[in-house]
Amino acid sequence: MRNGRLLTSMAADWVARAWAGPSAIPSSVRLEWQLVIVRWAGIISIGPGLLLVPLTPTQLWAAYAVIGLDIVFNTAVQLGISRYPGLLTNVLLVMLGDSLITVMIISAAGYRDSPLSYAFFLVAVSAALRYGYRSLLVVGFFVTCDWINKASAPTALDAPFVIRSVFLCLTAIVTSYIYGQVHKAQTALLRQEINEAAAINEALEHQAQHDLLTLLPNRALLQISLEQAIQTYDTSGLTQALLLMDLDRFKDVNDTFGHRFGDLLLQQIGPRARDVLGTSALLARLGGDEFAVLLDGGNSQTAAELGAELVTALEKPFSIEGHVISVGVSIGIALLPEHGRAPDTLLQHADVAMYNAKRRRLGWVLYAPEQDNNTPERITLANELRDAIGQNELTVYLQPQVSLNTRSLEGVEALVRWQHPKRGLVFPDQFISVAESTGLIRGLTHWVLNAALREIHNLAGIGIVVPVSVNFSMRDLHDADLPHTVESLLARWSVHPAQLTVEITESSLMDDPPRALQTIKRLSSMGVRISIDDFGTGYSSLSYLKQLPVDELKIDRSFVQHLANDKKDAAIVRSTIGLAHDLGLQVVAEGVEDMGTWDRLRALKCDTAQGYLISRPMPAQQLPEWLREQWGANKTLAAAA
Ligand code: C2E
Ligand code: CA
Ligand code: CA
Question: Would you say residue 635 has pLDDT above 50?
Answer without folding.
Answer: no
